[in-house]
Each structure stands twice: as C-alpha cells, then as structure tokens.
C-alpha cells in the first residue's frame, strides 16, 4: 500500500499553485488516466446541452462527417499539453492548433469559459464518485490553476479568480443555458453513436443506454433523451465502483498514460511519427454559415498569454 500511494505522497509535498503542471500531470497521467479520459468525454458531452455550442458544432459538420477524428484530435491535443506542459515546445504547438481551429469560428467568450470550467470540475466530480481514492486538495486546486493557465493561453478572458468562483460560474451557466434545442439532440446522438461504435455490434444498444444512464436529469432534458432503465444505471454505477475498489490493490503506475493513447483510432501508434501540428480540424468549408465564422480568424499566440 505504501507503493500504491507513492504518487499521492509526492502530490502532498508539492505546492498546488507553483507546481500545478506537475501535480496535474501526475493525477491525469499516473493516478487516474482512465477516469480523466472518461470524465473529459462526459465534460465535452455536457457542453452540448448549451444550444449556442451545439448549434456551432452542428454547423461545422465535423460531428456528422468525422466524429472519431474530432474526438481523437481533441483528446490527443489536450493530452499533449498535460504531458509536456503548456509552455513546452509540444505544448505550445498543441495550443497553436487549438487556437487556430477556434479562431475560425464566432465563439463567445462565455461559452469558452464554460467549456473550460467543465474541464476543471467534471473530472473532480467523476473521480469523487468513481475514483479508486479521493482526490487530494492539492489535485483539485492544481486542476484549477492548470486550466486557468491553459485558458489564458487560449485567449479566454475573465476566468474566475478562485476554484470556488469557477464552480459557481459553471453551476449558474448551466442553470441559465441548459435548454432543449434540436442541435443539442443532433450532436448528442452523434456522440452517443460514436461511443457505441467502440463496442461490438450486439452490445451497441446497451452501450447507448449505458451512456444515458450516466447523464443527469438536466442533461437528459436538454438533449430531449429518455432516461435509461434504472436497473441498467445501477449496474453501470456498480461496475464503476467495483473497478475503483479493485484498483486500490494495484501497484502504482511507473509510466504516464498521457499522450500515448494507443486506443485512438485515427492515428495508430501515436505519438510515434506524429507531431501536435499534424492534428486538428481543417478550416471551415463553404457550407458553414457566415454567422458561424469569425470575420477575421485570430487567436492569441500561446507564447504570449492573454493576447
């Protein structure tokens, strides 16, 4: 058990403000890599309950044409930043790809702030429910400071100044913006279909229902989806709790899972032979409506935080 908690002891000795990059790298890459991946999947899924976000995503057509590539690009770019640090050469390259992609579209600062808030708080909520150990307070604060620094380098303005203020912003944004829209349902259906496609065909109906079983009532209403059967939801949660209990007896990881992700389906063998600059969506095509485009595509360079 002492070996199992070697990383936790390391985290306890670090400062969550000064050492937030290292703490987040340990937490996401060594202690909870599977949980962070699942939590960030559902964090992005959660943002599709906001009609202004889902409408823009529907207009780009990426979810309809290339859902797996969009998923892999997002996951790998965020993992590159976490694995190497946002100010490392690979981290800056990943941020340039993200900023260039966002810079083509008319995205509100509030929507950007909201998406960023889910990256901080949804993994914390997931791990609190399904992690093999509770998060150390340093891990929670480090996640906030890490994503605040990333958000600054993405040109996001007015990020709340404390962990608790950011959580309050997230809760209030959801209360006022989670409403049903056809675009929510469209993007939600594409996302669930993507998740289900990772399973053998006979299991895909159960996988779709399993995803719905993990959605809150507010999300189900915003997507216009029916709840999953209660027994299935109980079985899914029991399986997640059982996995967490079993992991308590595993040895500590000795190699980070970040930026390796052998399960991605678009870039086999990543990161061998790839660079963050190879990732990302193409510029918007002619079918993207003019009101969804930014008049002058631009985002601040990650080398100059805040623009």
From TrEMBL:
Q: Which GO terms describe its molecular function?
A: oxidoreductase activity
Pfam families, per database record: MPAB_Lcp_cat
According to the entry, every stretch annotated as the ER-bound oxygenase mpaB/mpaB'/Rubber oxygenase catalytic domain falls at: 54-229
- Source domain of life: Bacteria
Region annotation Disordered: where it falls in the sequence? 273-307
Q: Which PANTHER family match?
A: ER-BOUND OXYGENASE MPAB_MPAB'_RUBBER OXYGENASE CATALYTIC DOMAIN-CONTAINING PROTEIN, PTHR36124
Protein's name in the database: ER-bound oxygenase mpaB/mpaB'/Rubber oxygenase catalytic domain-containing protein
Name the species this protein comes from: Catenuloplanes niger
Mind giving the lineage of the organism this protein is from?
Bacteria, Bacillati, Actinomycetota, Actinomycetes, Micromonosporales
């Amino acid at each position: 058990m002492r070996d199992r908690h070697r990383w936790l002891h390391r985290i306890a000795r670090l400062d969550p403000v000064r050492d937030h990059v290292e703490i987040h790298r340990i937490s996401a890459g060594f202690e909870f890599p599977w949980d962070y991946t699942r939590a960030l999947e559902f964090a992005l899924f959660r943002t599709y309950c906001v009609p202004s976000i889902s409408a823009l995503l529907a207009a780009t057509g990426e979810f309809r044409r290339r859902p797996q590539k969009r998923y892999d690009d997002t996951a790998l770019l965020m993992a590159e930043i976490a694995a190497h640090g946002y100010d490392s050469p690979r981290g800056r390259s990943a941020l340039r790809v993200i900023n260039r992609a966002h810079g083509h579209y008319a995205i509100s600062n509030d929507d950007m702030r909201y998406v960023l808030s889910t990256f901080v708080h949804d993994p914390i909520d997931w791990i609190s429910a399904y992690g093999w150990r509770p998060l150390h307070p340093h891990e929670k604060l480090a996640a906030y400071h890490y994503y605040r620094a990333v958000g600054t380098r993405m040109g996001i303005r007015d990020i709340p100044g404390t962990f608790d203020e950011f959580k309050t912003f997230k809760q209030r944004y959801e209360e006022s913006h989670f409403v049903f829209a056809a675009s929510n349902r469209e993007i939600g259906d594409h996302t669930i279909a993507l998740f289900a496609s990772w399973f053998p065909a006979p299991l895909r109906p159960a996988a779709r229902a399993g995803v719905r079983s993990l959605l809150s009532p507010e999300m189900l209403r915003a997507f216009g989806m029916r709840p999953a059967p209660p027994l299935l939801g109980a079985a899914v949660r029991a399986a997640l709790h059982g996995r967490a209990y079993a992991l308590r007896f595993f040895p500590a990881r000795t190699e980070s899972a970040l930026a390796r992700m052998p399960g991605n389906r678009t870039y086999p063998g990543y990161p061998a032979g790839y660079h963050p600059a190879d990732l990302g969506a193409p510029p918007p095509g002619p079918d993207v409506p003019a009101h969804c485009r930014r008049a002058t595509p631009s985002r601040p360079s990650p080398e100059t935080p805040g623009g």
